[in-house]
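Protocol step 6 of 9: fold each sequence in the batch and record its structure tokens directly after the sequence line. For illustration, a two-sequence batch is reproduced in full.

Sequence one:
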Amino acid sequence: MNHRFAHKCRPQFRTGAFLLILMSTLWLSPAGAVETRIEGPIHQDLVWNTESSPYRLAGSVTVEREASLAVAPGVVVRFGKGSQLIIKGRFVANQTRFDGMEDLHNREALVFQPGSRGHLVFCVIQNLALQLRTSDTEVTNNVIANRNGSGIT
């Protein structure tokens, strides 16, 4: 048995198993949960937590340059029709589900503007565009599934 090969495969299996568990738990959020509506600019540092999840974005929500937004593990962020989350400041999400509309003609997006900084790790990004206009954003071990034809740009 080639022990180097077995050692290299184990982390990939754990990552794959973790992503499968993450996807199943995030897709099973309560249907009747009360949503926290978010709209307009964010000018101060915020943390979106599981107690207020799911969050529903209405229109364009912008994290301004002086602000940071951290999204706690297990939070669900739903995008209303045509909504965008625009990052100009700092953004961190770990084990978060971002859920756009399933209509093929919608334009929901998570947008990282030039000068922004961000981390998306072990997230599920579904039915919305992910636009990276900065080189200072880490996108690692995420699941991206889009019926509307958008993806990472």
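Sequence two, same batch, same settings:
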Amino acid sequence: MTVKLLVFCSLVLLFLAILLKNKRRKVSGIQVDNGQQFETFLCELFKRAGYNARSTKFSHDFGADLLIESGGKLIVLQAKYYNRPIDTDAVEESVVAGTVYGTGYVGVITNNEIPEKVKEFAKQFEAKTFVKRIYFIDGRALEKLKRREKII
């Protein structure tokens, strides 16, 4: 009975250890646990790729998570660390952030994918508002950034 209990407890502990390990999602080869760590990770990636980049505060940031200077323009990025594709809300948040920071260059950066319907929605903003360009940076583009390639 004692041996069976010991084996059972060992298996339970092993199972829990595997669950905890898998809870952490890999993003471009780096493990992060939450959106704040994702934003910090992104800021460092942009800096290593030669961009002038800085993070905003983690709350009450009006939708701005990263401020990137590239080609003489300020680009405000909304970071979304999701286990699903982003939706149009992310575009709206980035546009609000662009208004707050006084720039027409905004974007969404995610570890996931960006659906076509979201890109089409963004084109409407570009055509009908002050927004000059909405950038989309997905998991594949993050791989390029990790290799220090320019992406915006």
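Proceed to step 7 once all outputs are recorded. Observation for sequence two: Residues 15 and 58 are 34 Å apart (CA to CA).
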